[in-house]
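Q: I have 235 residues here and want to know how they pack in 3D. Can you give me a structure?
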Amino acid sequence: MTSMPNPKKLSVVIPVYNECATIQTVIAKVQAVNLPKEIIIVDDCSTDGTRELLEQLKLQGADNLILHYHTKNQGKGAALRTGLQFVTGDIVIIQDADLEYDPQDYPVLLKPILEKNADVVYGSRFLGSHRVFMFWHYMGNKLLTLITNLLFDTMLSDMETGYKAFKAEVIKGLKLESRSFSIEPEITAKIFKKKYKVFEVPISYDGRGYEEGKKITWKDGFGAIYTLLKYRFKG
């Protein structure tokens, strides 16, 4: 059995807003993944001490930690777009700054790309082990995924997943516009419009509730539907 090749360099892009309680642990978990990598963090004008903590971590000598700061809060999409400008790796993974997604799943996400079977890989929360709670949030995700599948003739199980891996030239070539959480459906719509080859793999998921700091709400669901329709029919 031959071993799976590694990427020349993995770029992990982490948009951050008010995640002082989790960001240090997330960075440590990403660093523990035994792959050549750069970690690009964009702080979206946090007010809870996240920026100061990031500066301390940088001073501790993490050479592969690249920090950028927004001077005003602009949204997850804006932070992600900023981070993508500084990518130098050949594969990109988007990593949320909370502890919902586990970097130990990176090899699973990377495998279809490294074996030249995919341009993009979605980590599905519903195919792997996951925390069992928040029924209406689950139903909202299922509705958005159904709409995506109808619009783009696909068979995703989890469109809104926060774990996606891309060939660098794919994600950097999408010309993203969204500044909010609508960045996720925009990415999906543009990937399928361009006919990229997409794989879906199971990941683990430890979702958090709103009392634990979850930021996305039902209002973002309406924005996601609008975004899917907009980019499906936009020329």
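Q: Anything worth noting?
A: Residues 29 and 103 are 6 Å apart (CA to CA). The chain has eight helices and seven strands.
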